[in-house]
């Protein structure tokens, strides 16, 4: 099956290389050919520089990616992304990735707790590498406590939904951001099972 190529027109050079890569990589996916056209502004010195070094810049594109300014495992970072990491790991590692399988978490409590332990250990390792070991155990305890809170909330919502004959589907990071959810509490969409439509009986005309 042949697919039409996708095109992307980039007007002026973005401020960061990371933004440039993210924007231009949206075309040419899934075996669909893509073409990116960059339109530089001749009045901007930065655009002139990229125009003059276009080939060399793209030959070593990832070398120019700016370092991330976020502090890994900091409290603001955990508030925004820790729940997403937990949901992704639990659902994919435990075979709960299919739609509406989130409620099966109650049958995998031990495995979910081990995943939380491993994730907290990863946080401690990262903190140890960044600070030389200082504060790594504190980070481990804090992250593990937050993960435990998220799991407990997940268990509770799953049990409540099962008792009411409903299904839950925890929100991923993308859907939480789209929905404007800001709290660290693990949110869930609770859906009721479809109800059968009422059967209408036709009335027979009296003779």
State the helical fraction: 40-55%
Spans of at least 5 consecutive residues whose pLDDT stays below 50 are 171-207
Biggest β-sheet strands, sense, barrel: 2 strands, parallel
| Overall average pLDDT | 79
Shape designation: flat
Q: Beta-strand percentage?
A: 5-15%
Question: What would you note in describing this structure?
Answer:
- This protein is mostly helical and 207 residues long.
- The chain has two domains: 59 residues, no CATH class; 117 residues, no CATH class.
- It has seven helices and four strands, in the order E-H-E-H-H-H-H-H-E-H-E.
- The strands form two sheets. The chain has a two-stranded parallel ribbon with strand order 1-2.
- It starts with 5 loop residues before the first strand and ends in a 16-residue tail after the last strand.
Kindly list the characteristics that best describe this protein.
single chain; 207 residues; mainly alpha; 2 domains; two-stranded parallel ribbon; two-stranded antiparallel ribbon; 7 helices; 4 strands; disordered C terminus
């Amino acid at each position: 099956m042949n697919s039409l190529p996708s095109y992307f027109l980039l007007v002026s050079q973005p401020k960061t290389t990371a933004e440039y890569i993210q924007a231009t990589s949206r075309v040419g996916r899934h075996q669909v050919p893509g073409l990116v056209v960059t339109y530089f502004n001749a009045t901007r010195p930065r655009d002139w520089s990229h125009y003059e070094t276009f080939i060399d810049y793209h030959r070593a594109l990832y070398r120019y990616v700016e370092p991330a300014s976020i502090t890994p495992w900091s409290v603001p970072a955990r508030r925004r992304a820790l729940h997403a990491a937990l949901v992704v790991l639990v659902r994919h590692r435990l075979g709960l990735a299919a739609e509406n399988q989130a409620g099966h978490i109650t049958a995998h409590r031990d495995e979910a707790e081990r995943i939380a332990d491993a994730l907290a250990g990863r946080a401690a390792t990262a903190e140890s590498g960044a600070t030389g070991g200082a504060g790594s155990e504190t980070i481990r305890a804090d992250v593990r406590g937050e993960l435990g809170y998220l799991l407990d909330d997940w268990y509770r919502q799953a049990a409540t939904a099962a008792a009411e004959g409903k299904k839950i589907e925890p929100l991923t990071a993308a859907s939480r951001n789209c929905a404007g959810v800001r709290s660290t509490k693990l949110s869930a969409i609770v859906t009721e099972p479809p109800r059968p439509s009422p059967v209408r009986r036709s009335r027979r005309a009296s003779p």
